[in-house]
Design goal:
The protein has strands at about 1-5, 10-15, 20-40, 40-50, 55-60, 65, 70-75, 75-85, 90-95, 100-110, 115, 125-130, 135-140, 150-155, 155-160, 170-180, 180-190. A hairpin with a 4-residue loop joins strand 10 (about 100-110) and strand 11. It is mainly β.
Amino acid sequence: YVSCVQGGVAKIYRMGSGGWSEVYTSPIQVTEVHMSAASDGIYLVYNSRDTSAVYALAIKASGLVPLGTTVGQGGQLVNPCIAAENGRVAVCYRDFTNQNQVNVKEYQQSQNSWSNVGNLNISTDFGKIKMHNGCLYLLQNGQGSSNLYRYRFTDGIWEKVGSNSYAAESIVEMDLCFYGDSPYLVYQGGASG
C-alpha cells in the first residue's frame, strides 16, 4: 500500500499481481496525508484543503471504515500523523493558529469518536506518533525546528524519554520505528543534511 496526494485528493494504492490499483480516493480536497499499517488494517489520516479539519479512516478486510466524523476541527490543523496497534488508533496534528499546539487523540470505537490523550502542553513545528507494545510515542522537534525530543504516554501520563535532545540542529524531516524493543530515530538535519 502507498498513500499520496494526487490531483488535490488523498489516494491509497495497493500493489497486486497486475500492478498498482487504486483502493481509495478522498471525497474532499486535501493538503497532507499519512498512513500506517497494523495487523487488522491500513489506516489513513488527512487534513482538508483549507486545513480546518482532520479526518481518519481504516481499510479492513470488511471494507472502508470511517473513524468518526472528524478527528479535529477548527484552527489551521497541519501535519497529521496516524499510528495503530492491536486495535488502538491514535492521531497527532498541530494547530498552527494556536501557537503550534500538538494535539494527540485516540479513537474510541464504541462511540465512533476521538478523545484527547492525556494532558499534553507541547508546541512544535513537526511531530510524529508511533505505538509500540501498548505505549504511545510522540517524536517532536522543538519550536523553531531546533531540537528533537521523544515522549512516551504510559499510565495516563506523558513523559519525556531521556533528558537531552536527540539532535541540536534544525530538523527538516524525522521518523521513529522499533526493531524488537529498541527505538530508532532518523532525521534530516537542516545543517547536516
